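During the reporting period the student researcher (J.K.) took over the structure-prediction task from the postdoctoral fellow and processed the backlog of single-chain submissions. One of the processed entries is reproduced below for the supervisory committee.
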Amino acid sequence: MKASQLETEFWRKALAAYHHPEGDFLAEGYAPPGGKVADFTIVSFGERFHLFHIERRIGGNCAWPGHEIYFGHSCTSDFVSWLCHEPVLLVEPGRWDGGHVYAPFVFEHNGLFNMFYTGLNACNAQQIGLATSPDLFRWTRHPNNPLICPRDFDWAFWSEAEPCSCRDPHVVRIGELFHLYYTAVTRSGDGCVALATSQNLLDWQDRGPVKTIVQDSNGLDEGSNHLESACVFEHQGEFALFYNHMHGLRLDRSISPCAFGDTAGQIVWAGASGLEKVAEHDGDWLVAAFENKTERLILGVLDWRLPDLAVRRVTEPSEIERFLPSCLS
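J.K. obtained the following structure tokens:
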């Protein structure tokens, strides 16, 4: 075989293996070839679920230059077979998000897909911005980015010249207002979930922390009270706040979307991070997270009727079939 043929064949096989990965992804968890899954979002469009995520290198670190500089993009119709697409939103050095990009959250509004995401500058200070797409493949950063910056918030510890937290956006519409929840640090050094509200997704009003865990209030070790990957859902007249803290994914409930207390909630999924609701059927939720140990996407079922609420990991296609027709058009 000639050199030109060898080269063509090499690229054909390599790209086929990348775009059409093989594996027992429900049992083992899903990750793209050569990478891992950290904070992520799942959005349904047409007959497929689209996954956008931090793509963590095997053996990598989120703080290292050149790591976590774009979002991985894959799609599936059944969480068994996956199609791995080209990455999106590659960093542009010198910008507010020129160092790294973290924690995308995607939803559709007024005919456009909106991605709120965390950007890190060259000093690793975090802010939140917006990109939009008509089709989930072509993304345009908003010219007014960043849209959330805690620089002038009297409660927040933040400086553009050093590593500071303002990450993990999650947006939910409650009444006429969009509520954007994110994780940050207070001036006293405690981890918190903070809130901003908007009528148009562009102009945001700071509402301050809605959940704070004070250092050592639970007898925890130094540095252990960061809150991560927060999301809020309305459920049966209450608001459910899921977030990561210490040894797993926790839940707090409140009658207000603006106040969730100051103590650690119950663990509902040990060893998992970043809950996303995928679908609902007869009161059960199909949810996804990434497993802390393997950093792969895993699925579970949350049954709200159980007295001891906990997510049950699913590993077989038959366990999720009832959910899929309800959310794919």
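The committee noted the following: The longest strand covers residues 35-45.
J.K. will present the remaining backlog at the next meeting.
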